[in-house]
Amino acid sequence: MEKEQTSKKTPKKLEAKKAPKKEKGKAPAAPATYAVVRIRGVRGVRWRTRAVIERLQLTRKNHCILIQNTDSYKGMLKLSKDYLTWGEASAETIALLEKKGKPPYALKPPLGGMEPIKKGYPTGALGYRGSAINELIKKML
User: Fold this and answer.
1) Residue at 57 is within a domain
2) What per-residue string of b and e applies to 70-87 under the rule 16 or more CB within 10 Å gives b?
3) What is the CATH number of the domain that holds 79?
4) pLDDT means per 10 residues in the chain (141 residues)?
5) Residue 60 lies in a domain
C-alpha cells in the first residue's frame, strides 16, 4: 500500500478586495439625514450616556441637530434612546431648521403638549419615530 503524502498547507496570500463596480448614470445614494431632538434632562444619568448627549451637542432640552445616518451615530442614538427622539428629516423640515441659524437649533416646547417623556415612541415621546419627527418639529417651530 502506498502512503499518501500529506503536504503542509501553505498560507494563502491575502487577495486585495475589489471595489464594487459603479453603475453608469447612477449617483450613489446619499445617507438619510436624521433630525435628533433632546426631550429629557440629564440629571442622574450615567456618565457615558451624558457624554454621548454632549458629543451630539444637545446641551439643552428641546434642542435639535441634523446628523447623517451612519453606524457611529446609530450607536450613539441607541445608547441615549431614553433621552432623545429622532427620525428621517424631510427636505422641507431641513429648510425650516436651517432658517433658524447655526446648529443646534433651539426649539419651543410643542404646541398641544408632549407625549409622556418616559415612554417609547408609539405611546410616548422617546426613541426612533421615523418620518413622524417632521410633524413634531413643525409643532416645535
Assistant:
1) yes
2) eeebeebbebbbebbbbb
3) 3.30.1390.20
4) 56 55 57 91 91 94 94 94 94 92 91 88 90 93 90
5) yes
